[in-house]
Structure formats: structure tokens, C-alpha cells
Write a structure and sequence with these properties.
With 755 residues, the chain is of the alpha+beta class. The protein contains 18 helices and 26 strands. The protein is globular.
Length: 755
């Protein structure tokens, strides 16, 4: 029997039964163009008469600019433009904050180009445009800059002390400071029989996507078009238009394919102004592509935080309270998302546990290092490491099983929604909506075969084995709304236009699946267009794991409206494709974030003689509400876990005392390869669909990374239990772990031979 013709399009389509696309493990439709070389990345964009830009960057962490001589660079054949802040003039404006405008941050905004002072190595000082990239880079070497070096601030405590100021006119290095909490933490600690306090540190690292930043700008006298937009093109369009005193309709941000984003790509950087400005001056298309050293030096860094954290417990492991002091290094300026990580760190310190009494002092400081932004799971990775590691240390003190203590303290399913209070000053009261945290823990342990694993420092062939567990809760679905537009074409095809952008997650496939189920048509009937500002009236972009939760919901509801119109057409006796295009536009407004949750479990082996760590097995479990495409969601979870494993052991941006970046290439900035990671087992649950959106979906892009630091540190700590190492500092690099083992032996904490 044929499926009913719910679309009113008759034989124009091969109708599908409702629900057969959403939830199916369909391979990405966009993969064909990538695998056949038909993708269009920013560097693939070429125009006749296009010229090339290069950026002169500061070689000093902190210095006063006494003079810049560009005469030799301007005289070089092929050079078309050399500009400093003096030439740019009034168009030179600071870049505003996009998210988390915490009190005080607006005093430290980054200018689009340095004028009188440079404050980190890599800060833009001049832009050169030439007929080729090679000539432009040669011209950079001919610019003579006279610097008066100033004291560099390179650490959190040094910054707080304030002996040297990064911004002398502000008079302080403290960018923001505020308390948050709920309940009565002081009373909880006063009455608790056991407390433990530790100081933790999470290292500075970055997303390091395969493709570096880049853009192509073209000004035709009335319209500015910019290729290479990612993440938040509509916000960036509005910002660029305001800098040029143009209406937003005079700027188009056009999304290209992208080789990874991870939060650091697509924010508004100085180059996002400088390159379009150069195009306006020359009346020609201008391309800028950064090299890897520029990327590691100038693109957003992330994660560098310290936290003094204290836990109060009963002797049976019941958590009575948690309090701490969280401090973040924001670098030299506050960028568009600079306040996100530290605000979320404080919010997620209590995690998925029944901690009614919590207090945290939050502080963010300015230093002479590259400014920070967001990176996949901002604040969550750090908070989960701090809390989960402290929990294991407390269990060791009390002689308690870490799994049993987590079971005892996890918020129960029947306690949902669980109020979390107002833990971010720019937001209202919040609550975890739905979840079965205990089920997530049990299923993760079962998936790795926890009961059968050697742990606690069991020695096998000279290697000490350990298992670590970390539980988490994670929000998703940020942004106030999202827009979708769907057009039923006269040839029987459909065009979907969305305000979200894509960075490799497979949105073209998933949006077609969602719309296909609503309209009862196959996947190949759809063309999906995303991100570019000409597609819809406005879009919030892609961040905070929102693309499916918010963007997918907009597509679903728009498709439902279109189906109603097509059904009405069919009721008039019309058969086949419509005689003219039928278009539906829809704005979906969110009802606040929704919360995924899960557990990571790691099994490691450590060689105590060499400090080498092998990750033998890793389970990353997350309840994502409803899985739109298990194949793609699984890839996101595995990719996140691999990224987190590498970050925990390898990735590190290191500076010397003068503020010089020591890891400015992949020879020094190490990342995980296939030899460093196991076959990650990703487990995706659908036990607690979100009540806040019509898909029941929760974010699935960040849960794979957020608990890696905590699970791995606990696993290594379990393997080295005989050495009594606190392991409170990341990364767990070979150097750091070897140093800790040497110190343990020197202190007499090494286990006896044979144990």
C-alpha cells in the first residue's frame, strides 16, 4: 500500500512515512562535495583583480609605540597599501562584547589596531596589501617600528598584585570581580565534620582547527561582501556596518565551508575590520589568510584558570557544601566572548550534585598575553576537572568508594527540575530541567565494564592501572531565537534557509531529515542553505550547542506550516508540484536553555619510571534528549572526547616571563594523533527529552569534551594512588607528571618495590 500523500504534491515526490528520517543514521549529504574536492573554503574564493593582505604584529608583549616608518614598505613594487592606526583614523574603534558582559569588562575592549601601545605578542600594528601574499609579507619586514619596552604581566597572581599595569589608564588589572552562590555555605562548612581545600590550575590552550582564519572582502561602492563568515555572521554584520557607519543592508556576510571552528573561529577579530577597510580604500577584493604561527599567536586562547576550591562532607560521603575562588587570565583585552568561560566555570562548579550550599568569588584579570575567548565547553571543562578531582581526593581521605559517593550525591530524577539559583550576574534564576543522572552513571560504568577493570594501582607488566569517573551537567540552546525559511519550488524541490551557521556538524543533512519527516518527502528533495546573512532576516549563529535545539526547532515548525499550506492546496483538488513557489518564514523563540548530562569513565595505565600514560579505554556518555542522527551525534561525541584527551595530556600554550609565546608552532604545541587515543566508546541516551523545544533535543556538540580532564586526572591519580599525588594541575604532560613523581619519591611517598 502506498504511503498517504500528505504534501498535496502527488507523484512529484516519493513520499516517506513519518519519522523514518529523524533518528536514522544517514551519512552526511555534504560529504560528497568534500570528498570530491568540490568544497569551497575561504582560500578557494578568488576574484579577478583580487589582492592580498598581511598583518604586521607586535613582537613585544608590552611596549609603547614611539614611531612607525612605513616608507620602505610602501616603495616595494607590488605594494598597494600600508596603513597604521594613524591612516585608519576615526574608523579605528574598539570591538564590543557579544556574550557575558560582566561588570567592568568593557574597560578593556580590544582596538582594531594598536595605536600608542601594544599589549601582547601578535597584536596588529599595521596592514599591508599587495598584488601577492609573498610581496605583502616581504613588505612587513621593511616596516621599522620603534618600541619602548614596558614591564610585562604574565601570571594571575602577578596581575592581581598590580605592581605593573597592562592598561595604565584604567588603574587596575582586575577586569571583573563578583560573588555568586546559593544557600548558606558558611554554615555548611562550620558544621561539617570533614573539609578539604586544594588549589587547582587549568592550562592555557586553544581549539587549533585544521583551517586557520581568513576572509575575502569586496567593496563595490555601495555593498560590502565578506566571504569566510562563520559562527555568528549576523552579529558580525551589524558590528562591521556600525564601524563603517553603514546600514546593515549594505553588508553581506557569506558563509564558506570551514575546516573546524570549536568556538574560536568566527568571532569578530581585528582582521574582520582591517581587511574590509582595506577593500574600501582600494576598491578591490582583498584576501587575508593567516599562517599557523599567526593563528596560535593571535586567535583566541582559552581555559587558563585557577581555583581555590573547598568541599565539606560528612564521614559517609554526603556533600554538605562547596565554596571557592575562581580566577581567570583573560589576556591583554576582553574580546567578544572573553567573559563566558569564567562565568560558566562558577555556574558549573556544583555540577550534577545535590549541593544546596555553594559560594564562589569570581575574578578575571588582564595580562600581557593573547586575549581569550570560548573553546568547546567553555568553563565546563575547567569546572568539571576542579570539582571531580577534589571529590576523588576527598574520597581517598575518607576511605570511600568514589563511585558510591557520586551515587549518594547525584540529584535524583524525581527532584527535577532542580533550581541552581542565579550564578551568573547577567542572567536570572536557572534550573536543571529534566534528567536521570544516576542512570547515566550506571550505564557508563556498564559500558566500560567497570567491575572487571584493574584499578587502584594494580601492576600489570610494570604498568600501574587506574580508573577515573567524572559526572557532568551541561547547558545548550543559547540565543533568544532562530529563523527558518522554507520554499516549495515548482519543480518539486525544497529550499531550506537557516540563520545558524555550520562548522562541520552536518546541519545540511539533519535539517533535511527534520523537514523531510514533517513534509513526508525524501532527503534528496532538499537543498539546505545556512549562515549567510542574505538567507533570513536574522540569525543567532552557532554556539552553545544551539544549532539543532533552536535552529532545528525553527526548521521543524516552518516545515509544519508549509505542510498545512500544501495540504490546503491538495484539498482544492490540485495534484503535483505547486504552480508557483510557496514560501514560509518562521521565527522560533526559545524558552531558555535545556540541560544534557552524563558521565565519562577512563581506564589508563601509567609507567611510573617514565611517566608515560596510555589511555586504554574511554567511555563518553551523554543524554542528549533526542538523537536526530546517531551517526553524526556519535561523531561529535567521539571527536570531542579525542580533543579533550589531547588537551588534557598535550595541548599547552606556554609563555616565558617576558610574555613571549614559546609554543607558536606544531613543533611545540603538541596535539593528539591516533597513537595517543583509544577507540572512544560514545554512548548517547534519549532517556530525558527536553520539554523546552518541539524536537525534545539537547545539545550534542560539547558533552564529549567537558568531563575529559576530570575523568583522566582521576584515572591517573587512581593508578598512582601509592604515590599520593594530588594532581591538581593540568596538563598531565610527560614533563609535569615526571616532575610530580620525582617530588613524591623525594618526599618518601613512593610505594615500596613490588607494590
Amino acid at each position: 500500500m502506498n504511503a498517504p500523500d500528505r504534501t498535496g504534491l502527488g507523484n512529484a515526490f516519493e513520499a516517506t512515512a513519518s519519522g523514518t528520517l529523524t533518528g536514522a543514521p544517514i551519512e552526511r549529504v555534504e560529504d560528497e562535495r568534500f570528498l570530491t574536492g568540490a568544497g569551497c573554503f575561504t582560500d578557494d574564493v578568488r576574484f579577478e583583480g583580487m589582492v592580498h593582505a598581511a598583518i604586521l604584529r607586535s613582537s613585544h608583549a608590552h611596549a609603547r609605540i614611539r614611531g612607525i616608518d612605513c616608507s620602505a614598505a610602501r616603495a616595494l613594487p607590488g605594494v598597494l597599501l600600508v596603513a597604521t592606526a594613524a591612516e585608519i583614523g576615526h574608523a579605528h574603534k574598539p570591538i564590543p562584547i557579544r556574550l557575558a558582559p560582566l561588570p567592568g569588562l568593557d574597560r578593556f575592549l580590544q582596538p582594531t589596531i594598536a595605536a600608542d601601545e601594544v599589549r601582547y605578542v601578535g597584536e596588529p600594528v599595521a596592514i599591508v596589501v599587495a598584488t601577492s601574499r609573498y610581496i605583502a609579507e616581504d613588505a612587513l619586514d621593511l616596516i621599522e617600528t620603534d618600541y619602548e619596552e614596558l614591564p610585562a604581566v604574565t601570571g594571575i597572581e602577578q596581575s592581581i598584585a598590580g605592581a605593573a599595569l597592562v592598561h595604565a589608564s584604567v588603574g587596575t588589572n582586575v577586569a571583573t570581580q563578583y560573588p555568586v552562590g546559593r544557600g548558606d555555605a558558611e554554615q555548611a562548612f562550620a558544621s561539617a565534620p570533614y573539609t578539604r581545600r586544594e588549589r587547582f590550575r587549568c592550562h592555557r590552550h586553544t581549539g587549533a582547527p585544521m583551517e586557520t582564519r581568513g576572509l575575502v572582502a569586496e567593496w563595490n561602492g555601495s555593498l560590502m561582501r565578506v566571504w569566510g563568515a562563520t559562527k555568528v555572521p549576523f552579529f558580525n554584520r551589524g558590528l562591521l556596518a556600525s564601524m563603517f557607519d553603514l546600514p546593515e543592508t549594505a553588508v553581506d556576510m557569506i558563509e564558506t565551508d570551514i575546516g573546524g571552528g570549536f568556538g574560536i573561529r568566527g568571532e569578530f577579530y581585528p582582521e574582520d575590520f582591517l581587511v574590509p577597510w582595506a577593500s574600501m580604500q582600494l576598491g578591490r577584493p582583498v584576501k587575508w589568510i593567516e599562517d599557523r604561527r599567526e593563528h596560535l599567536m593571535a586567535a583566541n586562547h582559552a581555559r587558563e584558570t585557577e581555583c581555590e576550591l573547598e568541599i565539606a562532607m560528612d564521614h559517609d560521603g554526603t556533600i554538605r557544601g562547596l565554596r571557592g575562588r575562581a580566577m581567570a587570565d583573560l589576556g591583554a583585552y576582553v574580546r567578544t566572548g572573553g567573559g563566558v568561560a569564567i562565568s560558566r566555570l562558577a555556574q558549573y562548579l556544583p555540577g550534577p550534585y545535590r549541593i544546596t550550599d555553594f559560594a564562589c568569588e569570581v575574578m578575571a584579570v588582564i595580562t600581557n598575553k593573547t586575549p581569550v575567548g570560548t573553546f568547546r565547553g567553555p568553563g565546563r571543562y575547567e569546572a568539571n576537572f576542579f570539582r571531580e578531582r577534589l571529590l576523588d581526593l576527598a574520597c581517598a581521605d575518607l576511605g570511600l568508594d568514589p563511585v558510591a559517593v557520586r551515587e549518594k550525591n547525584l540529584i535524583a530524577k524525581h527532584e527535577m527540575p532542580w533550581p541552581i539559583g542565579r550564578l551568573v550576574p547577567t542572567e536570572g534564576e536557572g534550573a536543571y530541567d529534566v534528567g536521570d543522572f544516576h542512570s547515566g552513571l550506571h550505564k557508563a560504568l556498564a559500558a566500560i565494564g567497570y567491575e572487571r577493570l584493574p584499578r587502584g594501582g594494580t601492576r600489570i607488566d610494570g604498568w600501574l592501572h587506574g580508573v577515573g569517573v567524572a559526572c557532568f551537567v551541561e547547558s545548550s540552546g543559547g540565543g533568544k531565537s532562530e529563523n527558518a525559511r522554507i520554499i516549495a519550488r515548482t519543480d518539486g524541490s525544497f529550499d531550506i534557509y537557516s540563520g545558524v551557521s555550520t562548522m562541520g556538524q552536518g546541519h545540511e543533512t539533519v535539517f533535511a531529515q527534520i523537514a523531510g519527516d514533517e513534509l513526508g518527502v525524501p532527503l534528496d528533495a532538499f537543498r539546505v542553505h545556512h549562515g549567510s546573512t542574505a538567507h533570513v532576516d536574522y540569525g543567532w549563529g552557532t554556539f552553545h550547542s544551539r544549532a539543532i535545539v533552536v535552529g532545528g526547532s525553527a526548521v521543524k515548525l516552518a516545515a509544519a506550516q508549509l505542510r498545512e499550506q500544501l495540504d490546503a492546496l491538495a484539498a482544492t483538488g490540485h495534484v503535483g508540484a505547486p504552480a508557483e513557489d510557496i514560501e514560509v518564514k518562521l521565527r522560533y523563540d526559545t524558552r531558555g536553555p535545556t540541560y544534557s548530562y552524563g558521565t565519562h569513565v577512563a581506564h589508563v595505565a601509567v609507567d611510573p619510571e617514565t611517566a608515560r600514560v596510555k589511555v586504554l579505554a574511554y567511555v563518553a556518555l551523554e543524554d542528549v534528549g533526542r538523537v536526530m542522527n546517531p551517526l553524526l551525534a556519535h561523531g561529535q561525541a567521539v571527536g570531542g572526547a579525542v580533543q579533550g584527551i589531547g588537551a588534557t595530556f598535550l595541548d599547552e600554550l606556554r609563555y616565558d616571563e617576558a610574555g613571549q609565546l614559546l609554543s607558536g608552532s606544531y613543533a611545540d604545541y603538541l596535539m593528539a594523533t591516533s597513537t595517543e587515543v583509544p577507540a572512544v566508546q560514545a554512548v548517547l541516551l534519549e532517556e530525558s527529552p527536553s520539554p523546552s523545544n518541539p524536537l525534545g533535543a539537547k545539545g550534542a556538540g560539547e558533552g564529549g569534551i567537558v568531563a575529559t580532564g576530570g575523568a583522566l586526572a582521576n584515572a591517573v591519580g587512581d593508578a598512582l594512588a601509592g604515590y599520593r599525588l594530588p594532581l591538581t594541575t593540568l596538563p598531565l604532560s610527560l614533563d609535569n607528571l615526571a616532575r610530580a613523581l620525582r617530588q613524591a619519591r623525594a618526599a618518601g611517598n613512593a610505594p615500596q618495590a613490588g607494590h
